[in-house]
Each structure stands twice: as C-alpha cells, then as structure tokens.
Write a structure and sequence with these properties.
The complex is a heterodimer. By secondary structure, chain A is mainly alpha-helical. Helix content of chain A is 52%, strand content 8%. Chain A has a three-stranded antiparallel β-sheet with strand order 1-3-2, with helices on one face. Chain B starts with a helix and ends with a strand. By secondary structure, chain B is of the alpha+beta class.
C-alpha cells in the first residue's frame, strides 16, 4: 500500500516537472537574447553555425551575413538577415540563444567581419556538403571551401 | 515470446487488484491532461506565429500597392518638386515592403528576385529624387524605365491580391502560406525580365565603426580592379611573395590550401605557420593570381598585455606598408579591440587624401606584430589620378561654412560615392556643441557632399 502511494506521488510530481521545466528554460533564453547588439547578434550567429570551424571559417560566416545586408536580394539589417525565416539553422533550432563561451573566438571573428575582412570574396551563401539537403543550393557558384563549408554566390 | 506473455498475464493479474487499478487510472489521467495542456500551448504559439506572418504579408501587400500608385503619380506629375516628393515616398514604401518580405516563411531563393525588384524601385526612386532636387527633370530614357518598373509593380500587386484572396477567406495559416507562397514567388521570379541596374543596394544599414562603415569602405561597386598590377603568377611564386610579405626569416611554412573563384579577384588561399610559435597557431591569407598581391591576411593568435601606444602603432603600420611597396599611405582612423589596433590607411597624392584606396592594418599591441591586413579597397581602386586645381578657394569654403560651428582643420580629399564614382572635395573638420564632425564640400561646385559625425571613444575614432 505504502509503496504504491509513493510511486503514485512520484509519478505525478515527475509529470508536473515535465510541464514546468521547459517553460523556465525558454524564459531565460529570451531574456538574454533581447539585449544583444549587432556585433553580439553576429557573434551568436557565428557561434550557432560555426563553433568548431577554423577562425577563417568563423570570419567567413560573419562576412556572409554582412554581404547579405548589402545585397538587394536580402533584408537590409543585420537582424533582418539573421532572423529571416529559414535562413540559418542555428536560428531555427534556437542555438543562437546559447551564451558565448568567453574563451571563444566568435566575438573576435564578428569584429573582424564588421571591420571589413571577407575571406570569401563576396559570398552570399554557405552550406555543408555533407548535410545540405536542398538541391537548389548546389546551383550556387562555389567561391571557396573553408573547413566543413562551401561558400558561394 | 513466452516471457512477454507471462509478463502480460502478470500485469493483468495485478491490474485486477483494486489499488493497482486506481493508480494506473490516475497516472493515465494525469498524462492525458499533460498531453492536452501541451497541445493547447503548441496551438497558442502557432497562432501567435501565424499572426506575425499574416501581419507581414498584409503589410507587404499594402506597401506594394502604394508603390504602384506612387510610381503612377510620379509619371503624371509635371513639376520636378512634386516628382521628387512622390519618388521619395515610393522609396520609403519600397524599404518597408522589403522589410516585411524578409519576414515571410518562404525560402529565400524564391524571394530573391522580388526582393531585388523592390530594391531597384527604391534605388531608382532615390536616384531620380536626388536628380530632381538638383533641378534636373526626368530624361526620356528614365521615363521609359519608370514605365517598366510601374508595369512590373502593377503585375506584382495584382498577383498578390489574387494570392491574398485565394487563400481561405483572408485568413492564412503559415503552413499554407509557405506552400502557396513558394509557388507564387517562383512564378513571379520567372516573370522578371529586365535587369535594370547593377547590384547596389543603397539602403544598407550603416555600422557605427568607421573601419567598415558606409563612409569610405563600402564602395566596392566597380567590378574591374584598377589597382592590380603585374602578370599571372603561379602558386609557388605567390607563396614566395607571401614569405616576403611576412618576412622570410619569420616564416616556417606556407601551404596552398585552395583557390578563390571570385569574379573580380581570383586568388590562391594559403596557410602560414611561423618559427618559434606554439603548435597549432597559423595565419591565413588570400593572394591574387594576377600580380601576387595579398588581398587580406588574418593571424589569430593570443595577444598579451598591450605595451605600445597608438602613435607607435601608427608608425609601425606606416613602415610596414612602405617596406611592402605601398608608398604614401596616410593613417586616417583607428580602433582598438582585444589588445590589437586596426588602423585605416588611405593613399595620399600631392597632399590630397584618397579614401577609396584603402588599406587596413591590424597590429598586436604586445609586440607590434602585424596580425591583420586588408587591401581590397586599394586593389579595386588605386590609380594615379589626375587631380585638378580646386575651383573654389579655401577661404570661400570656410566662409560659407563657419556659422555656429568651430573649424578645426581644412584639407583636400577624394571620397567615393554610393554610385561607384569619386568626388574631389575639401575636407573640413569642425566641432559643434562638443561634437566633432567632418564635412565634405565639392571642390569644383561648392556643393556639400557628405556630413559625418565623429564618435570618439576610448577605443578609437569612429565616424557615423
């Protein structure tokens, strides 16, 4: 009798926990992400997309974002480009909200990109050849390969 | 198989026991409630998202409609002033339409041409507007172009109206919009026939750092690099040039890691390691195939505590550039970040600062190493220019300019425009109400061409 009561209480509590815990996590993530400036936004996007890539690859992702801002085919602000629906997987799955490791080079990479360094020579797109599912992306002209990514226009 | 049956029978037996039975019922009920709660929450969130997409879509349709009307009005108006006002408004509406276009859940490649059309309407309206402000009316050719743009605006508007109506009595589900929207925009993009202008998007946002900022770094619209000299070089020759660039005695190895297929500056990509540096540290650089010029270089190493002041750093940069063959470069602005200083250098010809010929040098503040180099501006634009005598005198410019402002210095400069051209100007640095600023006055017409506000921070001089 007693054992079953305990099992019952535990199961109810664990189910309630499942309902509450996800909410709390999302609240925290939103509060942090609302304070970011352009540099931070770009750094977070790089963090989400190219965390393990070589430094050149990180600057390249930042440069692609900025090239898109300048291009007439894309939105005209950094936030507009990054948050364009479907543009970056790191935004769609929430990785952009991961706080940046203070030892990470992504902020430096974002700064270099904002200061004009463009290792890609003007690329507007990049994709991972091993995970890219869209057929269309392969019709883009490949400008350069850096690490795991192809950069193209 | 046998064990599973046994387990099932055992479970059935236990179920018959009243207590077990009620416990199971309660658990199932709780899980069901949880399931309903989660489902409802998901439905709420999706509704909120739907609302956002709906809003973006409806706003965009509204703005496109306005653009069509305004283009029509501008063709009807007779006075340059009215035309200017109308086109200004059309430009504004095109910006708003484009912002909302970028919020739709339709994949980007399909939206590209519609987005481009909106940019072109905006750019064209802006250019005509400026022209009108200067008193010049629309030429016949431009009128024809205006007609074409208007035609396209009409067809886009009509198609959008149909899309809006055909999707369930005005209420759109984002899933449907994504599916219908993709088909729709694909068809639209096939209808786009004429390429009216090159890809210059004037409405990009300006960043508050001078180094990258709109003023003198975003002028790469000319496609032919003017500053590239020399013949095609092989990979080995390029690697040799790179060694000399860093200093032969410092370089441990140079590895060719790939090529860049850019249209304007095809290049070789290299990875460079240095002697007496920790394992795993390296620099990357791109070297042009024609002439073996270094386009850019980045050396991402840990930088220790800063020991150099900015004046020393500027000197190091200038000496570096001179020794590598970039003569007469003058430092213009700098920014300090992460214990490094990035200094902007512009070419100086006969006392005139030529901003389009831009090189940025990044110097480590612990020991003066060059850890970054960027010369795309220089390679695209550098030539010896025919600089005329200014038609307006310095006194005249100072006199016209002095009211309510304090003048700090006057000089001559060549600045790039958003249209890929260059203007020869007086550069006046002044101060008003505690804010430093720069004004560029055309040295041939006396017209004010550009105004920049200087933001001085601890980290460096920025302009906006």
């Amino acid at each position: 009798m007693k054992k079953e009561k305990i099992v019952l209480i535990l199961s109810i509590v664990s189910v309630l926990m499942c309902m509450i815990v996800p909410d709390v996590y999302h609240t925290i993530a939103y509060a942090q992400s609302s304070k970011v400036s352009d540099e931070q936004l770009i750094a977070r996007a790089i963090n989400g997309e190219a965390r393990g890539e070589p430094y050149e690859g990180q600057v390249a992702v930042g440069a692609v974002i900025l090239n898109r801002v300048a291009s007439p085919n894309f939105p005209n602000t950094v936030a507009g480009v990054i948050y364009q629906p479907g543009a970056f997987t790191a935004v769609s799955d929430g990785q952009i909200n991961i706080p940046i490791d203070p030892d990470s080079t992504v902020v430096k990479a974002a700064r270099d990109a904002m200061n004009g360094w463009d290792p890609t020579g003007g690329a507007l797109y990049y994709w991972n050849p091993q995970t890219a599912t869209s057929k269309w992306i392969w019709s883009r002209k490949v400008l350069k390969v850096i690490g795991k990514h192809y950069f193209g226009k | 198989m046998g064990k599973a049956r046994e387990k099932l029978l055992d479970w059935k037996r236990r179920l018959s026991d009243r207590h077990m039975y009620s416990v199971t019922v309660v658990i199932v009920a709780v899980v069901a409630l949880w399931g309903i709660y989660q489902y409802k929450r998901a439905a709420d969130l999706r509704q909120q998202l739907d609302n956002q997409y709906n809003r973006a879509f409806y706003e965009m349709v509204g703005y496109v409609q306005n653009i069509e009307v305004l283009l029509m009005k501008s063709m009807i108006s007779a006075t340059p002033q009215m035309v200017a006002e109308t086109l200004q408004e059309a430009w504004h509406q095109a910006n708003l339409a484009q912002t909302n276009l970028g919020q739709l859940p339709v994949s980007q490649e399909v939206l590209a041409n519609t987005s481009k059309f909106l940019s072109q309407v905006g750019d064209f309206a802006y250019a005509l507007d400026r022209q009108n402000i200067n008193g010049k009316g629309i030429t016949d050719d431009q009128y024809k172009q205006l007609e074409q743009l208007h035609q396209y605006a009409v067809s886009l508007r009509d198609a959008l109206f149909n899309l809006q109506a055909s999707i369930s009595d005005g209420r759109l589900q984002w899933k449907e919009l994504a599916r219908e929207g993709t088909q729709f925009f694909k068809k639209q993009s096939q209808n786009m026939t004429t390429q009216l202008f090159s890809d210059v998007d004037k409405t990009f946002q300006e960043f508050p750092t001078l180094i990258y900022d709109g003023p003198f770094s975003d002028h790469m619209t000319s496609l032919k690099p003017k500053g590239i000299t020399g013949k095609e070089v092989s990979v080995e020759e390029a690697a040799e040039k790179l060694k000399k660039f860093f200093g032969e005695d410092k370089v441990a190895s140079v590895e060719h890691t790939g090529d860049i297929n850019a249209d304007t500056l095809p290049a070789y990509n290299f990875k460079i390691t240095f002697k007496d540096r920790p394992e795993g540290e390296f620099a990357t650089a791109d070297v042009t195939k024609k002439g073996g010029h270094v386009i850019w270089m980045l050396y991402n190493r840990d930088v220790g505590q800063p020991t150099l002041d900015v004046d020393k750093v500027k000197q190091i940069g200038k000496e570096f550039l001179e020794s590598r063959g970039y003569k007469n470069m003058k430092d213009t602005y700098y920014i300090k970040e992460d214990n490094t200083a990035t200094v902007n250098f512009a070419y100086e010809q006969d006392g005139v600062v030529v901003y389009p010929d831009l090189i940025k040098v990044k110097i480590a503040l612990d020991n003066g190493d060059i850890v970054g180099f960027e010369s795309k501006g220089y390679l695209m634009n550098h030539t010896e220019r025919d600089i005329p005598e200014p038609k307006i005198s310095e006194e005249e410019v100072k006199a016209n300019f002095m009211a309510r402002k304090e003048l700090k210095s006057v000089g001559l400069a060549i600045i790039p425009t958003n249209f890929g051209t260059e203007i020869f100007c007086y550069e006046l640095k002044g101060n008003m109400n505690g804010k430093d600023f720069l004004v560029y006055v055309n040295a041939e017409t006396g017209k004010e061409e550009k105004v920049l506000i200087i933001i001085n921070t601890e980290e460096g001089i920025l302009t906006l």
